[in-house]
Amino acid sequence: MAEDPALRRAALGTQVAQLFRDEVSSGRWPVGGQIPTESELVAWSGAGRNTVREAIGSLVEAGILRREQGRGTFVLTTSDVRASLGRRVAATSRRDSLELRLALDAAAARIAAVRRTDDDARRLEALLAARREAWADGGPADRARADTALHRAVVAATGNVLLAEVYEGLLTVFEVVLDDDVQGATDDLAELHDQLVAAVADRDPDRAATAMAALLQPMIDDLGPA
Description:
Layout: H1 5-25, H2 38-45, H3 49-61, E1 65-68, E2 72-75, H4 80-90, H5 94-115, H6 118-137, H7 140-156, H8 161-178, H9 190-201, H10 205-221
Antiparallel strand pairs: 1-2
Helix pairs in contact: 1-3, 4-8, 5-7, 5-8, 5-9, 5-10, 6-7, 6-9, 7-8, 9-10
């Protein structure tokens, strides 16, 4: 029986999509970066233009890549797990998103206080200083980035690869949820961030978890009764 051309094309498309996935997962196509143009991918992969287009489309559908009109295609995440988590949380309420973040961040703070290395402690101090500067002189985007960088570093200090992957998959959604909180805000949380970093440095998991919870719980309380 002759091979069905449609099946052959589908198999080739899957192979090319996997080739592109490998570029993302290896970091050769970094998160936030623009991937090569369609013509460049055709020349590089040896596949036809339609096959390349379909392979890119499958990664866009999976949430790994994002097309931007007039600009090109960019890497959103390195993992299907991250992409699917991000889509799921994006479909939930602000309260659900904040409660999930509180649970993850507080657990991460507790674990980080136990496992952090000296390098982790130094990085947290440096990011805390960068956060102070961003809130003193930067705009809302600078403040949001500085806050995210500090919280991401706390998660990294846990040494838990799966926790870090889940957290990264949710960060984009968390940043959108918290975007309003840095618009025209004053830095009322500076002292709590100081306490958080100090507790992790002192290897005090209870203090670290308490400080992290104190940072996020008021945002949930502001929503009123569930």
